[in-house]
Amino acid sequence: MAAKSDGAAAAAGPGPEGAVGGARGSAGGLGDAVAAAGGPGVTGAGGSGPRYELRDCCWVLCALLVFFSDGATDLWLAASYYLQGQRTYFGLTLLFVLLPSLVVQLLSFRWFVYDYTEPAGAPGPAVSTKDSGAGGPSISTKDSATAFRTKEDSSELGPRRVPSSASAYRRRCCRLCVWLLQTLVHILQLGQVWRYLRTMYLGLQSRWRGERLRRHFYWRMLFESADVSMLRLLETFLRSAPQLVLQLSLLVHRGGRPDLLPALSTSASLVSLAWTLASYQKVLRDSRDDKRPLSYKGAVAQVLWHLFTIAARSLAFALFASVYKLYFGIFIVAHWCIMTFWVIQGETDFCMSKWEEIIYNMVVGIIYIFCWFNVKEGRSRRRMTLYYCIVLLENAALTGFWYSSRNFSTDFHSLILVCVVASSFALGIFFMCVYYCLLHPNGPMLGPQAPGCICPEAPEPCGPPADAVTSPPRSLPRTTGAERDGASVGGERAGTPTPPVFQVRPGLPPTPVARTLRTEGPVIRIDLPRKKYPAWDAHFIDRRLRKTILALEYSSPVTPRLQYRSVGTSQELLEYETTV
């Protein structure tokens, strides 16, 4: 979710060692003042950086196929209910399609408006380029894409000439056409389709262009992928999840042989939920330079994991709701409140404003009704184990209450449904174990794991974090003159070094770098602490920050690296000693 920034500044210049690196590739911008300067750095995309591959394009095409199949089957089913005269089912099915789509389209159009316009009366952030301390031109981030002439295979940049009246008229016409096109696209509820197509376009452009523009288009592609993954996550759990429970409840309530169309709609909603969750996690990991990217094998394992666990969960909901409608509503509301409170207690830091953080926590509470979703830094094994134990107990209780209302002696069909719930949940847990034991980006869970964070090697070990204050004790042992002179004290031989009173314990040695990191070139410093994983970095959710970074990246001959405010290392600056 996007929000305005808090006015923190972003600056580009030589960075201190040990600073946190920026995104693997992104473009955008905020900051009251931004400067770019050549200097050494410690983090970055390194060398040529990642490349957009054919399988990335195929993944987006599959996402489009899932999106259209989910929407088309729901609308087809709603039309079927209307023709059959079942107006209640028609209204509910259509409501779960249109209302989430309208919410997502409004949010998407709001992002477009913010990206494509500059607030009236608010000057753009100052952007300057420096080369080893030499002063350079200053430009505005407004229309930064046209502020410089960029030769594809040359690093020379020059200020653009003043446009003539004819070119200014053509430019205004082009902007008007873009506004009309985007308005029409979002009215037709195709905002996400446009963003998917734009993601593919930017990715392919990053393959076809030269090295200079290749990185620029790859950064913009990552931003677009992040936007569409957030929108899809919001829409699927507002549309596909309730649609799945509704259609399953109708299928169970009718009994007998299920109709083809409701079965297709249910399957499409289930695949959409599983695919969106896996795609969201993949884009989130790909966007962070301090995390190892998720492979496509791991993404497929996540799809199967969520597919079977959500199927078991939804079927248990449908069985219970087909008999106890009122109690099912009470159960859902109670579960959502508990999960939302659990998320809020974790003190998440995903959004840039408090009200958006609350909305995000409420959406995550909806997600927790159906499946696991990691929102907290650190190892999640215990929290995930606790969650799935609760889900297992709930599924067993809901299915058991439904089965107790059936005829045990003659209703063999009910026993089959109970077995389907149990086996589907077991398969989901199996694929979850496959993912964590074999396909996790950090390595096998049972074997030697690679580090989750990708940090550059440092010649010296790191100390405790900067916010860990080391305080001297209230009283210190006195140091005699003999001790200072190296004389024997207390049976110790003269010249024996006396251990220091205070000693900074070295931290764990830094882990090897998974890939070659670039250590020179311009660095964009962002005066904000980096959000902890699994949250998005600030330049992915703050759209003003995107604009400024994009302006700097486009105007710089060398693609700069992002560097957030470094926590630093705690070092002893004073030696505490008392003397007579």
TrEMBL record:
GO terms for cellular component: plasma membrane. It is found in: Cell membrane; Membrane. Keywords: Cell membrane, Membrane, Transmembrane, Transmembrane helix. Residues 123-162, 465-512 are annotated as: Disordered. The keyword Cell membrane applies. One of its GO terms (biological process) is engulfment of apoptotic cell. It is a multi-pass membrane protein. The chain crosses the membrane at residues 58-83, 89-109, 326-346, 358-375, 384-403, 415-438. Belongs to the XK family. This is XK-related protein. It comes from Molossus molossus. The lineage of its organism: Eukaryota, Metazoa, Chordata, Craniata, Vertebrata.
